[in-house]
Design brief:
This protein is about 30% helix and about 20% strand. The chain has about 350 residues and is α/β, with parallel strands linked by helices. Its main location: cytoplasm.
């Protein structure tokens, strides 16, 4: 059985990056899943499993983030003894990466080459605004288009009102109330996984990511586990990153349920997630305004007239401090590496 890779996003940009490695024993493919050095890869000829080799091993020794991940386009080499190795990860167009708990880690890649990142948050028992803001910052930082998906909308009397409320903390981001049980909002989400496009699902365990993947695929492609009615929390059903091909083209990247997300030391994603605060800060009288009691502070003025809530300001400050700390750690890591060399 042959596959049209263009239905999964293979285009001239990736083809151009692949050409220097094109040879009779090499083929391009997209990683469906990566497990402990073994990648499950879809090529034009079908699905195959490949071990690590070539430049991948060299790059991974310098930075583990260079290891193949679900969504990556890679160069495979087929050997005379019927082995298949993953020789190269082609440059990523977008990448969803979080900081790990290890202070010395540069980050953990959750997904690659997605066009959209769907931040999945359940309406029941109550959406966590701080978590949404953090995940949106991560989604913006990836380079993909974010969308906020509110699952279990059938548990709310007025899901549209909840969506309008949350739109205030997601400037410029589409907010979609979705109920798989009632088939509400699924068709709206489908446009983000049209042929050639990939949508990554990002959210906590029990948010409904696997249920969404199954609904979009029209079949059970990911395991689903019931959640507790009391607090709406569930166990981790997806323990790995998995690319699911959809009938007619397009793909969904289901990521593991995450309890916490650390941001890396770049703030562009944070600026876009908090576009309202970024705009306010730019209107302050002083460039180095601390937004406390300085005269001409636009942030404090917005607090006073109610257009900015204390909770959102506190969330912005917390994430900014986190990024500043990580920036310091990164500088220390680089200095240590230079001393070592």
């Amino acid at each position: 059985m042959s596959y049209d890779l263009s239905q999964l996003g293979w285009d001239e940009t990736f083809a151009s990056a692949y050409r220097p490695f094109d040879r009779t024993d090499a083929v391009p493919g997209r990683v469906l899943r990566a497990d402990r050095g073994i990648s499950t890869v879809l090529t034009a000829d079908g699905v195959t499993r490949a071990s690590l080799g070539g430049c991948v091993l060299i790059d991974a020794a310098r930075d583990p983030a260079g290891l193949p991940c679900a969504g990556d386009w890679v160069v495979l080499r087929r050997w005379p003894d019927r082995r298949t190795t993953c020789e190269m990860v082609l440059p990523r167009r977008t990448v969803l990466i979080r900081r790990t708990a290890d202070k010395d880690a540069s980050g953990q890649v959750l997904a690659a080459n997605m066009d959209t990142v769907a931040v999945v948050e359940p309406i029941h028992p109550e959406p966590d605004e701080a978590r949404i803001e953090r995940l949106l910052a991560l989604a913006f930082e990836s380079g993909a288009e974010p969308v906020l998906v509110l699952t279990k909308s059938d548990t709310s009397r007025d899901p549209d009102a909840v969506a309008r409320q949350l739109a205030g903390i997601a400037p410029g981001v589409p907010v979609l109330p979705v109920s798989v049980q009632r088939g509400i909002g699924v068709d709206q989400l489908r446009r983000y996984v049209a042929p050639g496009r990939t949508c990554a699902l990002l959210g906590r365990s029990g948010a409904g990511k696997s249920t969404l993947a199954n609904a979009l695929a029209g079949a059970t492609v990911m395991p689903v586990q019931a959640i507790r009615d009391v607090d709406g929390k569930g166990r981790h059903t997806t323990a790995y990153r998995n690319l699911v091909m959809l009938p007619g083209g397009g793909a969904v990247l289901d990521t593991p349920g995450i309890r916490g997300v650390g941001l890396l030391d770049t703030g562009s994603g944070l600026e876009r997630a908090f576009a309202d605060l970024t705009e306010l800060a730019a209107r302050c009288r002083f460039d180095d305004c601390g937004h406390e009691a300085e005269p001409g502070c636009a942030v404090q003025a917005a607090l006073a007239d109610g257009t900015l809530t204390p909770r959102r300001l506190a969330s912005w400050r917390k994430l900014r401090r986190e990024i500043e700390v990580e920036s310091g750690r990164r500088s220390e890591r680089l200095a240590k590496a230079r001393r070592g060399r």
